[in-house]
Amino acid sequence: MSEAKPSAREPHATHHPVEAIVFDVGRVLVEWDMRCLFGKLIADPQRLDWFLATVVTEEWHFQHDAGRDLAEMVTERKALFPQEAALIDAYATRFLETIPGPVIGSTELLNRLGERDVPLYAITNFASVFWAEFLPTQPHFKHFRDIVVSGDEKIAKPDRRIFDMAARRFGFAPPEMLFIDDNAANIAAARALNWQVHHFNDVATLEQDLLQRGLL
User: Is 56 helix (H, G, I), strand (E, B) or coil?
Assistant: First the structure.
């Protein structure tokens, strides 16, 4: 998972009907914030800000999303910040505590699409080890016919290769798929490859877009 700042709703193309929907996971279907874990472990707000900006950063975490070995990353980071070793270990062993729950309304929306038998897929920047822990906690992900996980493939969004791989695996041409993500760079990459896109901001706006497309 990686940080994103959502912006205005994306206009959608009208020249091709959507045959499949492809979701991002973090900050679209589930909340993700490393403060949810480290806020429990670091009482001082200024020290917490420093730690998340300097030690366990989202940029550093992205390396694991992209397939870098967790043990290697942790060992290297502890060598750089030996005084923070216990907290760096917490990143490795308590990662699911950075995911406090679903984005409000997202589970219901996913279930509605699944009940309509809309072909649903996902592309997620998610470390392989953490994904193996996380997936069993999400029974509603049964609606997905396939999920491309960056840590498994060692390719992360916005690299075009992960979108090309997903299109091959899902069996739809990019213009036939609607890609939903909160990250502007990921949206731009998908659009450049002729995917239809929705830059996610909130569930209500997404629901309205899906209604206008005739998917709900």
Answer: coil
Question: To which residue do tokens 């659009």 refer?
Answer: 191
d(CA 90, CA 78): 12
What the block records as the tokens of 110 is 């996913």
CA angle 123, 129, 134 (to 5 degrees): 65
Q: Residue 143: count other Cβ atoms within 10 Å of its Cβ.
A: 20
The single residue listed with the structure tokens 């505590």 is 97
Tell me which residues of the chain have a pLDDT lower than 50: 3-13
Measured from the Cβ of residue 175, the count of other Cβ atoms closer than 10 Å reads 16
Percent of the chain's residues with pLDDT above 70: 93
* Nearest-angstrom CA–CA distance, 2 and 98: 12
The letter for the amino acid at 176 is E
Global confidence as pTM: 0.92
List the beta bridge partners of residue 152.
none
